């Protein structure tokens, strides 16, 4: 090269990277459930239930994973759940109230949910500074991550509001 010009190149992930690190790299459905249960443990849950709602055939039925942990406020969903490779558990290795050694660290476990079903919904109740809120992502269709789209163009519908709801304790 005669004329040297320094420019920057940037990575721009395709949306399908979510499927690659989620359902394609995860070994099986058992490992996928374990990732979700580990997240409940890290969230200081006292229990986590895994409920199978038949018929468990493609296109019907569901698997419901529910815990009574600290949940996610909208900021947590935005800054942790929506960030692939989130560093949420990298610097802080202890859970907030029960001081558990965190099981997660890589910031990719939740994407294993794509191994368990074609679609998912996320419902989270959280209490922060006395304010009790619920956030709902009603329908996340994992197939939107399979197309040619770039990851930064994918948008997901949600609703948020105050709530009186409490998670059932067992
Ligand atoms: N059941 C849950 N309760 C509260 N927060 C959760 C739950 N599941 C996931 N999260 C949040 O989503 C983030 C991403 O989860 P995950 O992909 O498993 O990565 P990691 O556990 O390695 O941080 C977690 O760091 C946590 O902040
Ligand atoms: Mg995890």
UniProtKB/TrEMBL annotation:
Domain of life: Bacteria
One matching Pfam family: HATPase_c_3
InterPro entries per UniProt: HATPase_C_sf
SUPFAM superfamilies: ATPase domain of HSP90 chaperone/DNA topoisomerase II/histidine kinase (SSF55874)
UniProt protein name: ATP-binding protein
Species for this entry: Sandarakinorhabdus glacialis
Lineage: Bacteria, Pseudomonadati, Pseudomonadota, Alphaproteobacteria, Sphingomonadales
